[in-house]
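Protein: Flavodoxin family protein
Species: Microbacterium algeriense
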Amino acid sequence: MNAPLTAVAISCTLKPSPAASSSDLLATQMLDALAGHGVTGSLVRAVDLQLSPGVQKDMGGDDQWPSIRRRVLDADILVFATPTWMGQHSSVAQRVLERLDAELSETDARGRPTLFDKVAVAGIVGNEDGAHHIAAILFQALNDVGFTVPAQGSVYWNGEAMHTTDYKDLDETPEKVASAIRTSTANAAHLARLLKGQVYPTPS
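Structure follows.
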């Protein structure tokens, strides 16, 4: 089945535009790989928007989360990209996870959680260890709100500890990273098509 699919990548870099971002680069590479599987995607840099603290789908005032939420709900695949700081995902990534928490109390027309039938993959970059820990945190949270995680659904690059080379500074993408991108995106597109063709049942 070749049903058209869409993806949205949320980059959780701490750097506002137009600064270069390794998280943006990896997210874009993952979107490009998804395009090879017939998936149309777009990127949003969360730090450029006003995301109010809270766990509601709309915190009112100048909160811009509703616009990101709409893009997440409209997409079949979420690419969640974050840098590593002090061995942890970024504060922006945590804010996005907290805002997604609102979906625990939201249901679709079938009475199912709004994020059922959607797939999530992760991209993690940094000059320190922590990628596996961050992937575990992200996937637990994303799965809890309804996303399905494909086999080998995370892509990461760890630079040499205590050095200053960033992922965006590399002359070329390391083959191990390129291979992980190919695998994660192929599996994400495959799984998203399966879920599009046969959705999860309504909880009894």
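Remarks: The chain has one domain: 5-197.
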